[in-house]
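Sample entry (802 residues):
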Amino acid sequence: MSLTKEQFITEFKDIALKLYAAPLDDLSTQQLYQALALLTRSYIGQPWAETKKRYDQEETKQVFYFSIEFLPGRLLQSNLLNLGILSEVEAGLNELGLRPQKIFDAEADPGLGNGGLGRLASAFMDAMASVGMAGNGNGIRYQYGLFKQAFVNGYQVELPDDWMRNGFAWETRKENRAVTVKFGGWVELRPSRSGNLRVIYHNTDDVLAVPYDVAMVGYHNQVVNNLRLWSAEAPINAGTDFTLEQKERINQITQILYPDDSDASGKQLRLRQEYFFTSAGIQSIVRHYRRTHNSMAGFADRVAIHINDTHPAMAIPELMRVLMDDEHVSWDEAWRITLKVMSYTNHTLLSEALEVWPIDMFSGMVPRIYQIIQEIDRRFRLVFVPQFGQAMIDRIAPLGNGQVRMAYLASIGSHAINGVAPIHSELLKKDVLHDLYQIFPERFNNKTNGITPRRWIQIGDRPLSHLLDKKIGTTWRKNPLALRQLHDFADDTRFLDDLNAAKAENKRALAKYIDQVVHVKVDPDAIFDVQIKRLHAYKRQLLHVLGILDAFLAIKRGEKRPKCLHIFGAKAAPSYVYAKEIIKVMNAVADLVNGDPDVSKYLQVVFLPNYGVTMAEKIIPAADISEQISTAGKEASGTSNMKLMSAGALTLATLDGANIEIKDAVGDDNVEIFGLTEEEIAGYYQRGDYHARDFYDQDPRLHAALDMLVNGQLPGIETEGRDIFNSLLTYNDEYFVLADFESYLAANERLDKLYQQPRIWAKKALANIAESGRFSADFTVQRYGREIWHVVAKTPEDDHEA
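Predicted structure, serialized as tokens:
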């Protein structure tokens, strides 16, 4: 859109006065933010309405992306950038004597997701709008996020994440689009005169699902898509009064992201959440379609529904339910439509992480859905037992071992099943979903994850952005593949120096932030070694910690090391005891290292609490080293690896997930690879001959570092240190931490030496930035569109050019 600085100033003053009946000078930072957000929304309204109108008039096929998480990060800067008015707004705010960044910082991070799953979903929303694809999100409007992380005596403490305390400026309540979701009760199937079964519900526990829509603004293209988030409310029924207890039970459905499911009540709540948003979404999609169509015959030609991991897998039987019960479609036709419409992304290689539900709980919670799954199971067995045998079908049928198995349901009911990196997709076929691959080989494919350079470079890394504009122009902002022009300057010493200077500016900014948050003064000239991701044993923050302990002992022995700052950001699930023990040890290591005057001159550790998108925007531009050290064959893809490489960090990695594609993109010389391969680990599993204690006994450095967990050198971790020590030695190191220790140290030493040669380091950083464009989510969603959803990207400009 077109906006002058002067026009913005006039409109901003006007809207602030209308909102607060006071001049700008009298407003708080939060009020200034609310006024600016509301003004920005006014700029979005017309293209949003026009986009929806165009989709309906042209009967555009639309994608509906179902995800239990969306993690968009702050939206004000992103929306201004995508509208094309960020520089004008910032200039106007500066002229008014206001600090733009201070106003931007008043926005809370939306607590709608936790980790990579939610960030990917949000990246796809941004990307679909930016490439002109008709894409909609469908999720839950959580009142509270997962939790606000704090550390007390080094222990993780979970505090309420009341992210909506000041409201959510970007949402629009659409109570006229509310639907009813039915739980519990019992279902009667009664033959009707037409020969179909009539479904009659008795004593159901009804919940009103009210949608709140959030605009997803495309980059400089006048496309605005929709993210629909559902809130649970008590139905408004004449003559029915709800007690406060009943209303609270309904409110719990959308109260908090990932309720603790370590007991039966928590599991029931999680199940209610999953059916709530899938049922609401399916009903909404079908209702919108029926407004302009007399039958469901063309539904699959107008709608694609994607299941982001298994949480929304009930979308399959729910669509069957709506088609059969409400639209009176036959089973065979409903199944044909459902199969053509549905597609599924798997996000895990951990068999124990594949979602299952006890049949007793499931059938009581959603009896009609369970009936439909029973019939899916019966028909699946009827067709495939004669072909593949009872034993194999028993392993992969939707129902088995007293459980409803969601990954198998999602695979059987989808026409496409994809992993999120080549190694992950191959391992799905070879291991996790092997039997299903035998039956449906044509359904399996790969779609490597992607990220949004608009957020991570254009917003998060202004020094680098300005340098790129100066050197190669601005084409890269629209087409990130244009970053490959940087290869032409690999031997330009002045540019390499400028690249190092941009990194140094980011490091100084992060050092200031670290001091503000954890009150540790760090040296911006140190190597910034970063590991930022969810805390899980397979991601091996523990290996990183053992490497720090080895460095601590080496410095205490008098060894000279280049100064290194290790930066962690990670949350552990509230019920994940082992991960929380690792956090306690990590904080104990930070206290030990930072508190030792002999060591802290060369080595420092900071663990920043409450890691999220906005914190990542501060950390990533400053990173020198990107630690991607998961056990090979365990990480589906990862996206922090892509974000960090786009900022010029060098990847220290195992051959896991998308690390392999990064290595292939930048070349072996521009990454640092270590550790066992997936094939070597698979060999250990097959032979059963991995003996962790052998590595401990044979490596004095490992022995010394590991002993620090139990010999009193790390104060305050008696229980935690012993538990971790035992997990590695007594219980044989499930994730091969000890096997990779020596290789990990060697890789670190190579990076230490390399950092002493700034221009060579910068040249490698340049290679990473130059090849990072291929991992843009813009390209990822276009591949989904071509090969899975069969949805074409199209913008209003396309019509104009035609």
